[in-house]
Design a protein that fits this description.
About 25% of the residues lie in helices and about 25% in strands. Helix 8 packs antiparallel against helix 10. The relative contact order is 0.13. Bound molecules: flavin-adenine dinucleotide.
């Protein structure tokens, strides 16, 4: 839209006057900052950016977009911006300032506005001895993470974050603010629970769990011991209880001065785990992993917000390329393939490669669960490479793909929604039956595909 056009300018000014948040268009001050995603590699160029401060701002923005024939891309942090379609002709609707969180300790329910980060939930919940199902990074958005599943440190005991959502407040493509819960709009609630959602979420309500402390930490081994570490972790995962969720993480740390000296500029095979239990039984549980003698051992009793440090995720926006895959199994032959592409002799491996242990509650259909009610895979691969300069994007993308391809014989029939950073449709990241139901819900609520999502759905009538 050209802001030289006087009608367009009049309408934009009316939008500005009608909301508490900010509105910017190309060429105007604030546009570049407002369109910037957390992943700095993503260059989003929408026709207009609205930074909403309330549900009422979201309603007004959606009505404006509809009146001007624009599609709408809701976004919180932009951690998941990579797979989005180009935003030309679209409104980027950011909920970044909407971070209010209310905790009801009696019902153990948290209500988080759409822009809340996981740390905004975990810190106040811990004051009541409660925890939400946060992912590994404290600064990932609750809404985007949960809409795509939400796999965290309590996953094998309590499942995906999506299946703990009890209600969603959202604005439909027609601009109506509705509440979806057990008694209202069951299809919209189902779609929010792991299907990427329909509409623009303004707040989520979710179940919290009684967790005052847990035994968690990392065991760092030099990268040269990667094969031994992967084999022993894999054997161990075959016999652990649901109370432990763990990851084997191959991490090449940059030589940054802010990193502690033993980690700076080095590469490690790290076993990370969180156990819902006390120190004595936790130490007994991880003893087989400790036996080979890690270079660094950080296991201790911690409060739930400290889980956000376990995976050593970046805490500042960065440029990166990533991809992932559900694995039906991770047998010795798969370990050998991974060591070949990611071990000490690999030429240009991605910065971070994780294999996460699934199963437990994740493998059982969640009561009243949504689009990802259960996961029919035993492990999850995630590979991410930093791309500090533009020329690295191609080679890093190729190295991420090489890791994914190396484990192709063990890929499940679809990938994990939240770790799929390529612009694929929801059919590639959901069970086939869920995708079909989502198409029908899309046809009923958003037949013109006004709301854009990380992994699109084409509406189809039943
Ligand atoms: C460092 C890092 C660590 C991660 N760790 C984990 C992890 O441990 N477990 C895990 O499962 N995933 C993890 N992820 C993946 C993460 O869950 C996805 O990238 C997720 O999409 C991020 O959500 P967001 O709200 O922060 O991002 P955004 O980019 O803001 O949102 C992503 C998508 O969610 C949808 N969305 C966001 N807000 C709204 C809204 N208000 N209404 C409707 N739709 C909306 C849109 O489709 C949007 O494109 C990680 C990602 C990174 C970068």
């Amino acid at each position: 839209m050209s802001i030289g056009n006087s009608t367009a300018e009049h309408d934009l000014n009316a939008l500005r006057a009608g909301i508490a948040g900010q509105v910017s268009v190309p060429g105007q001050t604030g546009y570049d900052q407002a369109r910037q995603a957390w992943n700095l590699a993503v260059d989003q160029r929408p026709d207009v950016v609205v930074v909403a401060e309330s549900a009422s701002d979201v309603v007004t923005a959606i009505r404006y977009a509809r009146a001007h024939g624009m599609r709408i891309a809701p976004q919180g942090t932009g951690h998941g911006a990579a797979p989005l379609d180009a935003l030309d002709g679209a409104m980027l609707l950011r909920t970044t300032p909407m971070r209010k969180v209310d905790i009801d300790p009696a019902s153990r329910i948290a209500r988080a506005e759409a822009g809340a980060l996981w740390q905004d939930v975990m810190v106040p919940a811990a004051e009541h001895g409660l925890a939400g199902l946060a992912g590994s990074s404290p600064n990932v958005g609750v809404t985007g993470d949960t809409l795509g599943g939400g796999l965290g440190w309590l996953a094998r005991r309590y499942g995906l974050a999506a299946n703990s959502v009890t209600a969603a407040e959202l604005v439909t493509p027609d601009g109506d603010l509705v509440r979806a819960d057990a008694g209202h709009e069951p299809d919209l609630l189902w779609a929010v629970r792991g299907g990427g959602g329909i509409g623009v979420v303004t707040a989520l309500e979710m179940q919290l769990y009684a967790v005052r402390e847990l035994y968690a930490g990392d065991l760092f081994f030099p990268i040269e011991r990667i094969a031994e570490v992967l084999h022993s972790w894999r054997d161990w995962t075959a016999r652990v209880p649901d109370d432990v969720t763990s990851v084997c993480h191959i991490l090449r740390l940059p030589p940054l001065p802010e990193l502690p000296e033993p980690l700076r500029g080095r590469a490690f095979a790290i076993i990370e785990a969180a156990y819902l239990g006390d120190e004595g039984s936790g130490a007994e549980l991880i003893e087989p992993l400790r036996r080979p003698g890690p270079a660094l051992d950080t296991f201790a009793m911690i409060r739930p917000p400290a889980l956000g440090q376990l995976n050593l995720d970046p805490n500042q926006p960065m440029s990166a390329e990533g991809d992932g895959a559900f694995l039906v199994d991770f047998p010795p032959a798969a370990i050998d393939c991974l060591v070949a592409v990611a071990g000490p002799d690999a030429e240009t491996p991605p910065t971070s490669i994780e294999v996460r242990h699934l199963g437990g509650a994740l493998g059982r259909p969640a009561p009243g669960g949504g689009a990802q009610s259960s996961i029919d895979a035993s492990y999850l691969l995630n590979a991410v490479g930093a791309t500090p300069t533009l020329d690295l994007a191609g080679p890093v993308r190729a190295s991420v793909q090489a890791v994914k391809d190396a484990l192709a014989p063990w890929h499940a029939s679809y990938d994990y929604y939240d770790f799929e950073e390529k612009p694929v449709t929801a059919a590639a990241v959901l069970p086939a039956a869920s995708f079909r139901r989502l198409q029908e819900i899309k046809a009923a609520h958003d037949p013109d595909r006004v709301i854009m999502s990380a992994h699109p759905v084409w509406p189809i009538r039943p």
